[in-house]
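Structure in, sequence out. Go:
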């Protein structure tokens, strides 16, 4: 019922292997991380469009080759204890998940629409080559088009639509995606919205809730999974 957000983003630098290990240590079986492409088309694990916040690099991720990205420090910004932590490739992330028996909610991070098709193709090809178990995988995205490509290339993998605004979204408009889940900002979730999602037969996930005392209220609404930066705190409540 709990997923670690970007690994365990409150415990280690987000979207790093250290963060994934911290999530596993907390006892969760699911993590959520972000993937996008390097300049040379390699899927890497990183959230932002630019390197500035979560590494000692500067500029756009998409303007750097994977070799250049691997030279950067992605840990010291969080704490000196994580100095030398690198930006993982998706291959490294998948290997770590397999070793730790973690299931993966993989967000396809789209910063520009022209990135959608190349990213989905590269990610699907790589994960199929790794033979990562389908029952331990969800593709998620804010972009319907990305999920449409996932559906076309690998329909067996579950798909989740992420949203931070509900007004204007229609569950009817999402039917063609044959979704497994809706991943909604917990700040906007109401009992009415929750009821409509559950009535449609969809799994309901919320992000990013970091206050364990609020968990029961959301579970009573029908929430199936809480994505949190602090999985260690939710595991003991």
């Amino acid at each position: 019922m709990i997923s670690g957000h970007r690994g365990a983003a409150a415990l280690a630098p987000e979207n790093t292997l250290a963060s994934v290990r911290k999530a596993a240590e907390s006892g969760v079986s699911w993590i959520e991380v972000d993937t996008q492409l390097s300049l040379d088309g390699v899927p890497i694990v990183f959230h932002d469009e630019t390197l500035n916040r979560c590494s000692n690099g500067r500029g756009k991720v998409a303007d750097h080759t994977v070799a250049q990205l691997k030279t950067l420090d992605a840990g010291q910004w969080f704490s000196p204890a994580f100095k030398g932590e690198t930006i993982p490739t998706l291959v490294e992330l998948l290997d770590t998940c397999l070793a730790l028996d973690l299931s993966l909610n993989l967000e396809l991070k789209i910063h520009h629409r022209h990135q959608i098709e190349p990213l989905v193709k590269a990610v699907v090809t790589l994960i199929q080559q790794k033979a990562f178990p389908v029952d331990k995988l969800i593709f998620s995205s804010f972009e319907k088009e990305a999920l449409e490509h996932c559906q076309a290339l690998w329909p067996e993998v579950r798909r989740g639509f992420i949203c931070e605004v509900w007004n204007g979204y229609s569950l009817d408009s999402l039917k063609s995606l044959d979704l497994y889940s809706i991943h909604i900002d917990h700040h906007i979730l109401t009992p009415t919205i929750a009821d409509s999602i559950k009535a449609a037969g969809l799994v309901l996930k919320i992000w990013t809730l970091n206050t364990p005392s609020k968990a029961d209220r959301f579970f009573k609404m029908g929430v199936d999974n809480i994505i949190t930066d602090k999985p260690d705190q939710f595991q003991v409540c």
